[in-house]
Write a structure and sequence with these properties.
Layout lengths: L18 H22 L4 E6 L7 H8 L5 E8 L6 E9 L2 H11 L10 E5 L23 H5 L5 H24 L18 H4 L45 H13 L29 H12 L1
Antiparallel strand pairs: 1-3, 1-4, 2-3
């Protein structure tokens, strides 16, 4: 048993004359086994994912796609200036077959009120530096472009900035003159406005430039052509009571006869006058006793 223990010895042929031939066959068999193992290894596959919601982070997207298979590498494209998501990413799966299945199933899939666009990228089209530094966690840039542009500058920095703009403007004008283009564009540096209106070119408008104002036409009130001719519509100047004529009294009696009398109150309710006849005076109520007397006379 002690002789069997220890490292394995090299293969030996039973016939010593065929030893060289036997060793060649063993090496060939080992090469075939190694090639078969390499073939069995999974080739990775890369997919493109577009129309992603901007609020998602790398960890969330990777966790979602890991349900299909093992995700080896992942990269979400972000802006270098602002750090915001550009809306597309690249996902690498351990198996190429899994990547193709994911691309087919997730294409035009409604995800966060957006239709995802998924495509499989062939291995020959995958760039070498596509997943460069993919393992480094995302950090927002400390000085985005907007913040840098709007920062408070000192007087020296402002003067340097003006010098740069002047040089840039000079070069542009030289290029235009060299090409024979006669174009005068406004200066890149904005000068401060002066207080005097004469320096700035603003002048007060003259009397000839001022537009004449339109005169408003006064509307004349039309005098009423209606005149009171009948004595029924006239009003006494001394009092507010209307002039009682025999025709007016007979009309009032005829209207009172048509109205039903209330048994409880014993009062007569008069209807409103006919729209053809307009009374310009205020009606005055007569005492109840006189009304009762008139009612009795009409009944008789």
């Amino acid at each position: 048993m002690a002789a069997l223990a220890g490292p394995a010895k090299p293969f030996l042929s039973l016939n010593p004359q065929e030893e060289a031939k036997f060793r060649k066959e063993v090496t060939q068999a080992r090469r075939r086994a190694a090639q078969q193992k390499e073939k069995e290894k999974l080739t990775p596959g890369v997919i493109y994912v577009g129309h992603l919601p901007p609020a998602l982070y790398e960890t969330q997207i990777r966790a979602y796609f890991s349900q299909f298979g093992t995700v080896t590498r992942f990269r979400l494209s972000r802006s270098k200036r602002t750090g915001n998501s550009k809306g597309y990413a690249f996902v690498e799966f351990a198996s190429e077959d899994v990547a193709k299945i994911v691309a087919d199933t997730m294409n035009n899939y409604l995800f966060g009120e957006r239709l995802l666009q998924c495509h499989f990228i062939p291995p020959e089209k995958v760039h070498e530096e596509l997943f460069r530094e993919w393992y480094i966690p995302f950090k927002k840039p400390s000085y985005p472009a907007v913040k840098r542009y709007n920062q408070n500058r000192t007087l020296l920095q402002k003067l340097q900035m003006e010098e740069r703009f002047k040089k840039k403007e000079k070069l542009l004008r030289k290029k235009l003159a060299k090409k024979g283009i006669d174009y005068d564009f406004p200066s890149l540096i904005l000068h401060k406005k002066e207080k005097n209106a004469s320096d700035t070119g603003l002048e007060k408008p003259t009397d000839s430039q001022v537009l004449p104002k339109k005169k408003k036409k006064k509307k004349k009130k039309k005098k009423s052509s209606r005149t009171t001719t009948t004595p029924e519509k006239t009003v006494d100047s001394q009092g507010s009571t209307p002039v009682c004529t025999p025709a007016f009294l007979e009309k009032r009696k005829s209207e009172a006869a048509k109205i039903n009398v209330d048994d409880e109150d014993n009062e007569i309710v008069f209807k409103q006058p006919v729209p053809g006849v307009k009374e310009e005076t205020q009606e005055t109520q007569t005492p109840t006793r006189s009304r009762k007397k008139r009612q009795r006379k009409s009944n008789q």
